[in-house]
Amino acid sequence: MLKRTLKTALSGVLSLILFLGLTPGLIAEAAPLPTLPSQRLHLASLLHFSGSRPDNLGVKSGKLAPCPSSPNCVSSQSSDPQHQTDPFPISESPSQAIQRLQEILDNQDNAEIITAEPDYLYAEFTSNIMGFVDDVEFWADTDENVIQVRSASRLGESDLGVNRQRIESIRAKFAPELS
Predict the structure, then answer these.
(1) Average pLDDT over residues 154-166
(2) Which residues of 24-48 are buried (b: 16+ CB within 10 A; e: fewer)?
């Protein structure tokens, strides 16, 4: 019951935001948004849905965490077609590949690198609207000579394909010859 109530509330908030975004001229005169910095920060904090950082991230026994049953996750180590994506092939050393990925992520406005190790990279991506956070991992799998990838939303059920699109966009920058 609580889950359904929360889902309904979030849906209502998102609908309101979309409505406000699509009709700025109508709303601007009827109900102006707060203009003081403290009021804008308060409004932004009400619309921020970051969730808690998962405790199952990282490489354990040669695997990234499995995807949950919800469709808002992709992983190169998933055998489920709904969640599966290809790993990134590498031709340089694992640490050089991870360094290149770090440079790609450093140039993305909504990415924050949390962990950078020679064979592993973990970043959080925050959406511009509502502040949803996705956890993105890259691991240099030396046995397979690839970068294993995982991108998952912390909250919600569907991400409208955002995680898959993100991985494909990073792949295109990492290995343009494969795009």
Answers:
(1) 84
(2) eeeeeeeeeeeeeeeeeeeeeeeee
Q: Beta-carbon neighbour count of residue 124 at 10 Å?
A: 16
Q: Which residue has the tokens 């509330």?
A: 9
Annotated domain spans of the chain? 87-174
CATH architecture of 87-174: 2-Layer Sandwich (3.30)
What's the mean pLDDT in 124-145?
A: 93
Token readout for 5 is: 């109530």
Residue 128 in this model has a pLDDT that exceeds 70 = yes
Tell me what pLDDT residue 157 has.
72
pLDDT-derived band at 72, boundaries 50, 70, 90: very high
CA–CA separation, 173 vs 101, rounded Å?
A: 9
Residue 176, helix vs strand vs coil:
helix
Report the 10 Å Cβ neighbour count for 74: 26
